[in-house]
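Ligand: acetyl coenzyme *A. Inputs:
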Amino acid sequence: MAPELRVTQVDPQDREALRAWSVPSRAAFLQSAPTEEDLQERRRAVTGHRLSAVHDTVAGEDRVVATLRTFDSELTVPGSGPVSVDAVSTATVLPTHRRRGLLTRMLTADLERARHDGHAFAALIAAEAPIYGRFGFGAATRATSLVLDDARVRFRPDAPAASGSLEFVPDGRTAELAAVHDRTRRHRPGGLLRDEAWWQAAARRGPGRWLGHSGHVVLHRDERGVADGYVAYDVTDESVGRVPDGTAHVRDLAAATPAAYRALWEFVTSIDLVRTTRAGNRPVDELLPHLLVDPRAVQTGPVDDLLWLRALDVPGALAARRYLGCGTLVLKVVDPLGLAEATVRLHVAAQRCGADGWVCAEVTTTDAEPDVVLPVGELSSLLLGGTSAVALHAAGRIDCSAAAAYTLTTLMATPEQPWCPTWF
Ligand SMILES: CC(=O)SCCNC(=O)CCNC(=O)[C@H](O)C(C)(C)COP(=O)(O)OP(=O)(O)OC[C@H]1O[C@@H](n2cnc3c(N)ncnc32)[C@H](O)[C@@H]1OP(=O)(O)O
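Predicted complex:
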């Protein structure tokens, strides 16, 4: 980085500093300069976050030319619920300053800090797939889209029955939605904490927001009146003449019980004047097709990566999750940034089994000959159970025998595919 460039930390409560910080972050994401309202909202959203800025002198003035935002969050890992994670976002560089190493400088400094602060993981959503592998991140969750032909959606007689009740949620009333999400995000690997600021931002409307301009939220309650699911959806109308042709766009659907899951999908696919239901960012192993008489009423795809993970402490990351298989492997983890290099023995024995079937691993550093040599990004993409070690081995990305790749695949496997429904 050129000597005239300086890195500072920005206080979100400093109005002018936040305005200067917001210029590159909006320009790089192809948005216009921030309005007063944008700034107010941004301040609420980033309070308590770490904001880095790179400054340059441009036409004699000090200007922010690059940004990075990180904050402490929680990530659900297989079998053991949420663990702390360094969440990385708003990595932006003005187009006039790209490819001069500014992202590299900000991100490596933050990862070193996060490692020092005791985080075993960092996580981000990558704008483009080629950017973050060099920093030791690997794609750890995938997501897909669904298109439903509503007229063909009929539930099988053996599907869980819909019980309980449904109600529209008035704008801004997010407390019960937050409680439902908090219940559901703890079960599937890849779930992330949504804090109060996330829900405050969700309550506001506009283009690109959770609910867009004209979305609705419907809450499901069980028979005792406890909220256990919701669907947030937007509707567009493509009707021509008197032939109704509306589309419901599911923005978010969370269900803590099978009854809520069925009731919410049944509701959103049976709205009058709506013929098609679309849903984005859904898990790749969505249950819905299995519940239908005609599973082809649901068209699935394309599938894309979503959450990228980076182990910062290899023994800590392996010990944080639980396992369903058993076996022993020595893993040598290579790290391009030198932050998490380690050789560890991962031992999962059946007798360490918990009541729910998940097993704690014994993870010890060792100087034994490794069974598997792998880059930290590849390890990170295996950790939530969404990537096959057999596939990485076949692609030449991890160095081991076919038998060791198989053992690693069975050790890392999870009953449900990891999924992250939360953008940040
Ligand atoms: C977590 C998030 O916030 S994701 C959002 C990322 N931001 C965006 O997509 C907004 C638009 N893009 C940008 O602001 C910038 O181009 C950034 C942030 C992606 C990259 O910033 P830069 O300062 O240019 O990156 P930097 O110079 O440190 O590049 C490091 C390396 O990554 C490579 N790289 C950087 N961006 C990309 C990319 N989009 N595609 C492929 N390679 C890339 C560079 O070529 C360089 O490679 P090298 O070391 O082999 O020379």
